[in-house]
Amino acid sequence: xxxxxxxxxxxxxxxxxxxxxxxxxxxxxxxxxxxxxxxxxxxxxxxxxxxxxxxxxxxxxxxxxxxxxxxxxxxxxxxxxxxxxxxxxxxxxxxxxxxxxxxxxxxxxxxxxxxxxxxxxxxxxxxxxxxxxxxxxxxxxxxxxxxxxxxxxxxxxxxxxxxxxxxxxxxxxxxxxxxxxxxxxxxxxxxxxxxxxxxxxxxxxxxxxxxxxxxxxxxxxxxxxxxxxxxxxxxxxxxxxxxxxxxxxxxxxxxxxxxxxxxxxxxxxxxxxxxxxxxxxxxxxxxxxxxxxxxxxxxxxxxxxxxxxxxxxxxxxxxxxxxxxxxxxxxxxxxxxxxxxxxxxxxxxxxxxxxxxxxxxxxxxxxxxxxxxxxxxxxxxxxxxxxxxxxxxxxxxxxxxxxxxxxxxxxxxxxxxxxxxxxxxxxxxxxxxxxxxxxxxxxxxxxxxxxxxxxxxxxxxxxxxxx
Length: 467
Hints:
Helix content: 40-55%
Strand content: 5-15%
Structural class: alpha/beta
Shape: elongated
Largest sheet: 8 strands, mixed
Strand order of the largest sheet: 7-5-6-4-1-2-3-8
Radius of gyration: 46 Å
Number of strands: 10
Number of helices: 14
């Protein structure tokens, strides 16, 4: 029989409280008269808590245990408990008996009247110190102003959650878990019941230190609000307006009243102030970037070291369902182009069912490839494919011929210029030099004439110059 009520109990070093809590919770749930289960989530306890829980699960099948491979935090333990709870109504509760198990009956009565979530709100917080009460009230007032989610100020994790709300919460895979905001985010019909928190059963202090509470408060703000990221636009505008006002006052003091404005102290103060603003702005951007980095890595929220008391088949089905939901959320469908049949496609080209396969099995066969149709254009012949190559080779040869012709014409023009120069200097009074005409002729000795800087000879006799 599936349970109607599920208690989710995070446990971290609660060895001294487990026996008292089991006795009180079992008695309170039995008086309600509905099938129930108690799901303990051991968050990497270092004492004997896990051994006591395993022993209790062995003696009572209604006690179920989930053990983490290491400490992941209370918020993650609550997430794991909600994922493993099978009841129609789930009640997260602490193991130190500050949340009275006798109040579960009132939560169930409000749930049966139609509420989807029943909050247990503290009347007073006299068990806490005055600074902590004041800081808590101020924080939730600021948080409600920054976010659009209505998060009650004095409501903790102790509440009743219906199954449809639990299903929504299990689909929220964010890594930074601020459970008070996550519980309030889905909405649904909510009612409250007041109670007075009892002293801790072990007379011990809170396991939440100052730095841990500070990180928890930042998770609540940065997980449910983007106002800290957007407010720096307005801070920049205010700083710019203040700078212009200060500049105007300085100009008036110097030009109108002749007052010498001391610059060192004011300049240093302004530099330190604006540098501080820049560092704060970078820090806030870093907080959001760090959360983006944690989300895109896609690591699991927790690692289960062991389970006790669960029906293996049901646990396997539940894990498969959760894995299917996760894969549905993460995996993107791969787009593939759909093959469309041609308008004039042959219907015979489709697969044809046949019974040629194994007995009692219907297989398909593919018909032969369609024959080429004469009315459709086929591939170009080999001669047509070689035509561009032949044209390219012809163009290259033609270009080479023209280059040779141009070089010959240029050389002939150069020879004519040298001949004109020789004819203009033929009567100059210089010494005589005899050079064979074969070394200076245009046909056989053109290059030699160029090297000797002599004009080419016009006859086959010896060229002479008379001084």
